[in-house]
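Shift notes (night). Ran Methyltransferase ustM while the centrifuge was going.
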Amino acid sequence: MLHDEHTEIQAIQTAHRLRLIDAWDIQPGEKILEIGSSQGDMLAALAYAVGPTGHVTGVDIASPDYGSPYTIGQAIKTLTDSDYGDRLTVFFERDLTKGSDFLAGEHFTTNRAHQHTRECRE
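Came back to this:
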């Protein structure tokens, strides 16, 4: 796991992400577009929520070699190599303000950009 030295922080952040998913009423089988996937923490939570019949597509403007101490490419590879890997597709270096042709033919039941909702804050 990439977050070993910060497990308490990671647990708090994951709990927050799961509360967001609950507030958004994400259901098994949904097809979700997540904009701003970064190192994939929300992708992992969404992949868990949609279950084996759902799918999550992540889009990030950054290149896979961006980030420290781990790059987003390393983090996403860890995630796609996991049990959730078959539920995920991730696109790097994609600027949606310049077009979304790479998503042609896709249909998403839910689109999520990173945001905070008041009811999920502690």
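The two ends are 26 Å apart (CA to CA). The domain at 4-120 is CATH 3.40.50.150 (Rossmann fold).
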